[in-house]
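User: For documentation purposes, I need each entry recorded in a consistent format: the amino acid sequence on its own, followed directly by the corresponding structure tokens. There are two entries in this batch. Please keep commentary to a minimum and don't merge the entries.

Assistant: Recorded as requested. Entry 1:
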Amino acid sequence: MSVFVPLGIAGAVIAMICTLVIVFALARGAAGLAGGATGLWIVGALLSMAASFASLWTPLFVSLGALGAALVVGALLRLLSVSVFKSAERAPREEKRQERTLEKTPEPQVLSPRIQTPRVLTPLAQSSRATTAVVRSTVTDGIRIVA
């Protein structure tokens, strides 16, 4: 055995520890922690590649498979935890909503829209050159329309 095999095995162990951190970080939704653990996983995977120089590929395959499994399991745990928490929060709200509907509900009011006519602004002083009237709508105060 050469010196590369223990380095590869140590790299695979580091990569496995990082994948456990990745699983928990993804399940909690901590993107920064997941990114940091993934960066450290890369170091472990590169170290596990050292064993391939001695024709021992198992540490590399273990570290690669661990990352794939961590990403899938972490995403599934996040999906399950979010759906469980949402259903736990939703149940009391629905009961309160049913209690409110059993109480007296007011009749809806019909509101009629207010329509305002546009104003025509004329210049206060006559200038030496020809000017046109500026029409300003109350809806579009910032837009000037030259007639």
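Entry 2:
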Amino acid sequence: MCEYSTSTIPELTLQVKDYEQRNLLQEVRMPLTVSSSRFYIIGVNPYSNFAITVKLCKLNKEHEAFIFTETEFNELMHIIPDILNGKNNREEYDISNYFITILPFNKTLVKFTNKESGKYDIFQKLTLENLLRLRSFHIHLAEKYTDLRLSDTFNSILEDLVEVIHNNNVDNYYDTKMFTNFIETPPKYNNHLVYLELVNKFNYFVYTSIGSKLKACFNRYYN
């Protein structure tokens, strides 16, 4: 019987969700400085429909990262040559949530400011040069993430799992071990290891995704 009740969802704290939302699936990071004090990080965000996401951050300060969508990051990469060469004499650029300012007292430094919070960080132009050198690397990874079709496959997994739950009167459908076993024994889906990473790294996300599918199932069969 496909029932749904919010009382069956384990009481995972908001801190767990907040922690997960600061992480990325299939994450890859590259240093932007010789000292590895700053990083470029790319991955996909399950909480944003598995959208490609890029972070620029200091070492051990990922919670303060500058976060870009794929479109925003491509816009940044497009203007970096202008910032480095100073051809158009502009001192400030506007990209979505950020102002990017060439500091007038030291034109080798560039200030990134979060419009909403007002928080800022100072990047050396050399760091942006190193970021620009990652353009081909970034394009390769972005194409790889797109080819994985993670959102479509995850939705298919949930649909199949809910059907099994419905047909077999399973009660403990919030046990994510069931999700793990379902995709692993034997592997039924392409790139199933990605979804093993997902359930281990984004447990709360998987819980709530199963819950949403179960609710839709309940409404479909019993309303």
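Summary note for entry 2:
The chain has two domains: 6-16+149-222, 32-147.
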